[in-house]
Amino acid sequence: MKKILSVLWLACCACFSTVAQDNVIDEIVWVVGDDAILRSDIETQRLYMLNEGQRFDGDPYCVIPEQLAIQKLYLNQAKIDSITANENQVIQSVDQWMNMAVNQMGSREKLEEYMGKKYSQIKEERKETVREQQIVQQMQQKLIGEIKLTPAEIRKYFNQLPQDSLPTIPTTVEVQIVTMEPKIPFEETDAIKARLRDFTEQVNTGKMEFSTLARLYSEDPGSSVRGGELGFMSKTQLLPEFANVAFNLKDSKRVSQIVQTEYGYHIIQLIEKRGDRINCRHILLKPKVSDKELTEATTRMDSLYNDLKAEKFSFDEAATFVSADKDTRNNKGLMVNQNYESGNYGTPKFEMQELPQEIGKVVYQMQVGDISKPFTMLTDKQKDVVAIVKLKARVEGHKANLADDFQAMKQLVESRKREELLNDWIRKKQKTTYVRISEGWRNCDFKYPGWVKE
Predict the structure, then answer these.
(1) Euclidean distance between CA atoms 161 and 148, whole angstroms
(2) Positive or negative CA dihedral for 367, 368, 369, 371?
């Protein structure tokens, strides 16, 4: 399944190649159904993988065209089955990707120079890539359907596996956390608001452009390099407090009132509205925490730590009624894995490297039931906080077994079943699809030998 889907990642990233193709004589090297695969398509993919240090699972001039051919099979079947992409989702995904690309390069002009194409061209190519990605995923899901496995099937599969083929389950932990935010003096927040009011005055009187001020002073590294521009976003993509003000802006020459969010204080300027999406600029200033406030917060947390050790109240109670971490306090402080790439996503289980660095260092030395001493850390909102954690559970790394790892084995069997279903479909589709491969491109050890028909 991973190998089949890898073509989607390659397609998504193809436009990042930095090597010019002017010296490559283009030609059609594969034809799949009515679709051609060009030599330049393959070369672009290969160069990207080289630039990123990715390893080739075989000869790239065999692996890459085969992956592209598989994608063509899915797309051709999707046409027959009338499967289409959700254009709103495509646009939203493309806007996010373009914002990220501009952010990485520093400006639209630099992105255009890097890509050797106009911004509009890059965006249109990206739309086609995302559109095809969505269609392929939908086609695969339709082919797979809903896989339902009984416990007996999972046990049978497990018992058939040789011992040396059993997957290794890495060490996982479950962690509870209580955080305390240092108090921000009124003088600090008043000074920030005064600076933002001054920025507003400068823009409204024409003394300075909003974008210039954003580049000079905004503390949002993602948008400051673009003059504060966020790119087109829907309400659900923005914090509620920010969205409520931004979507009520009417005049692109005026500046909003000061908006407070969990990230700090903002002022906003409208650029453009398109239906239910908006593009705006903002300037973010964050209150600074002094050593004095940080020390005071640590002292308060020391007192809390001592009370916990003296069992005056439980860690669950401290997390529920004292913690400043709104993401965990309603869950008795239990952290939830938000890593989409993780097999533990949405669960309280973390592999050690998935924990925030400061927490991982502390938890590594702890035993189950231990409560840490207070330590400082930076949250995902870039806030300095003082934290204490409790190690609720730890399962050491081990060879998979049904008693402890039934859910992991279930996921493994489902994954294998999906891969088998898709592999069978590809082999059948090869027999009914016209495929022509140019001389010099056939002598490959293909994963699916049926491409070359004798």
Answers:
(1) 20
(2) positive
Per-residue model confidence as pLDDT tens digits over 102-156: 777 777 888 888 777 788 888 888 888 889 989 999 999 999 988 888 888 888 8
Tokens 């913690």, located at residue:
323
Strand-pairing partners, residue 105, are none
Of the candidates 259, 215, 269, the residue with the CA atom closest to the CA atom of residue 239: 259
CA atoms within 13 A on the CB side of 149: 21
On whether the CB atoms of residues 281 and 210 are closer than 8 A, the answer is: yes
Q: Which residue has the tokens 């996503």?
A: 345
β-sheet bridge partners, residue 423: none
Please give the structure tokens belonging to residue 359.
């927490």
Residue among 26, 20, 58 at smallest CA distance from 42: 26
Identify the band that residue 50 occupies on the pLDDT scale cut at 50, 70 and 90: low
17, two tokens = 């190649």
DSSP code at position 237: G
Scanning 176-271, the segments in alpha helix (DSSP H) are: 186-204, 210-217, 221-224, 240-246
Residue 405's CB is within 10 A of a number of other CB atoms, namely: 19
Which two three-digit tokens encode residue 327?
A: 């993401």
Element (H, E) at 103: helix 87-105
Question: Ranked by mean pLDDT, which of 51-65, 92-106, 336-350, 421-435 comes out on top?
Answer: 421-435
Query: Which contiguous run of DSSP H or E holds residue 337?
Result: none
What is each CA distance from 57 to 39, 66, 230, 428, in whole angstroms?
19, 12, 38, 24
Q: Are 163 and 401 in contact (CB under 8 A)?
A: no
Read off φ and ψ for residue 132, nearest 5 degrees: -65, -40
**How do residues 347-388 score in pLDDT, each as one tens digit?**
899 999 999 999 999 999 999 999 999 999 988 878 899 999
147, 414 Cβ separation under 8 angstroms = yes
Considering only CA atoms, which of 378, 386, 371, 362 is closest in space to residue 299?
386
Q: If you compute the radius of gyration of the chain from its CA atoms, what whole number of angstroms results?
A: 27
* DSSP character at residue 348: S
Structure-token pair, residue 259: 């908006």
Whole-angstrom CA distances from 344 to 1, 355, 391, 408 are 19, 12, 17, 9
Would you say 235 and 276 are in contact if contact means Cβ atoms under 8 Å apart?
Answer: yes
Beta bridge partners of 278: 233, 273
Q: How far is CA 89 from the centre of its chain?
A: 16
Neighbours of 94 (CB within 10 A): 22
pTM of the model: 0.63
CA count, 13 A, side-chain hemisphere, 345? 7
